Each structure stands twice: as C-alpha cells, then as structure tokens.
Amino acid sequence: MCKYLETVAKSSIPTRPWYWKILLANSYLAKVIIELPMNQTQQNDALSFEHKQGAVFLQGGLNRDTVPQAWHTRRDWATGEGVLTLNLAGVEKVDSAGLAMLIQLKAELGRQNRELALQDVSKQLLAFAEVSGVTALLSLT
Length: 141
What we know:
This protein is of the alpha/beta class. The chain has 2 domains: 2-38, no CATH class; 41-132, STAS domain (Transcription Regulator spoIIAA, 2-Layer Sandwich). Helix content is 33%, strand content 33%. It is built from 5 helices and 6 strands; from the N terminus they run H-E-E-E-E-H-H-E-H-E-H. The strands form 2 sheets. Strands 3-4-5-6 form a 4-stranded mixed β-sheet, with helices on one face. A hairpin with a 2-residue loop joins strand 1 and strand 2. The longest helix has 16 residues, at 96-111. The radius of gyration is 19 Å and the shape is globular. The chain starts with a helix and ends in a 9-residue tail after the last helix. InterPro entries: MlaB-like_STAS (IPR058548), MlaB_ABC_Transporter (IPR052746), STAS_dom (IPR002645), STAS_dom_sf (IPR036513).
C-alpha cells in the first residue's frame, strides 16, 4: 500500500519547485500535503502594521508565511504600556500559526502587566479559536 501511494504521489505531483510529503495516519489512510517553498509567498500574504486611533491595524495575511517576520518585528508594533489593541479588519487570511502568535503575544504582554484586545475579528479566526478552545483566553466570547 505504501509503495503504491508513493508511486501515485510521485507521478501526479511535480517534484520541483513543489515539495511533497506523505503522512500515513494508518495503513489504509494517507494524506498528501503540498507545500510551497517559503520564498514563493504570494504578495497578498504580506502583513503590515499601522498605528492609528490608539490601535495597531493589521493588513494582509496572518499565517505561517507571515508570522515569523511579524513576531521578529513585534518590538516595532507592539510597544507601549497598558492595553495593546489589534484591529484585525484588514486580515485577509489566518491559520493556526496566526492564532498561535496571538496566544504567544497575549502571554508576553501578560508578563509585562499588559493586556491584548482584539477588534474586528474575522469568522475564520473565531472558528480557529473555537476549535482550539482558546476563545476565552483571547477574550473572544
């Protein structure tokens, strides 16, 4: 079974520039995951931060492609005292990496005796938070 799946995956998926992995959940089930290399991020996935009206407005994708850079530059956009308000109205795509970043940001702010407030949260982020059981943690209830 495994050799068959490997053959099918190799024949139907280009090997370059795409990468593929086969994850076997059990001997009867396989899932093929296609991943784009990190340097092929689409332009609409870019994430920007703008300070205005007492909040930080996010624009773009909050996902595995943008989270590493966002986290690295958080000292530029998450500075200050008291409550950090993030307006997520401009977030087009979000995934579990984006949710994880928000949870980690809340924890970091808590260590600084600060709070995180989220505004205009998308249905997609709400669904991720609900499935993950963190709606209360992020004050999304």
